[in-house]
Amino acid sequence: MRVTVHLPGLLQADAEGAAHIPVEVGDDTPLGGVLDALAARYPGLDRRLRDERGELRRYVNVFVDGDECRGAGGLAAPVTDGANVRVLPSVAGG
Question: Is there a contact between 25 and 44 (Cβ–Cβ < 8 Å)?
Fold first, then answer.
């Protein structure tokens, strides 16, 4: 199946400047598998998204077709053919 990963400007340099990355994965591949396929192409990007244990960094928010992944199973969140995966950094301040 084909999934499109959308990156904010802050992370595009780690993906050779790409804002939208098509990723081919097998049927029924969860979000973690999509990120694995992305990591194979852009290892520097993966280090920005996941920690040493392979978990999403706490300041990274990932949405699958508009649903925040942590509420939908985290890295086990289901992804369907044609899905849009959006990566957004957390915003904090005071």
Answer: no
- By the 8 A CB rule, do 77 and 30 touch? yes
* The model scores a pTM over 0.85: yes
Which amino acid belongs to residue 94?
G
Helix (H, G, I), strand (E, B) or coil at 16: coil
CA separation for the pair 2, 31 (Å, rounded) = 12
DSSP one-letter code for 50: B
Q: Would you state the structure tokens that stand for residue 7, as one six-digit string?
A: 């990156």
Question: Residue 43 class from Cβ within 10 Å (0-12 exposed, 13-18 middle, 19+ buried)?
Answer: exposed
As given in the structure block, the two tokens for residue 35 are: 């990120």
For residue range 45-93, list pLDDT tens digits in order.
999 999 999 999 988 999 999 988 887 888 999 999 999 999 998 766 5
Which residue do the tokens 């396929």 mark?
Answer: 37
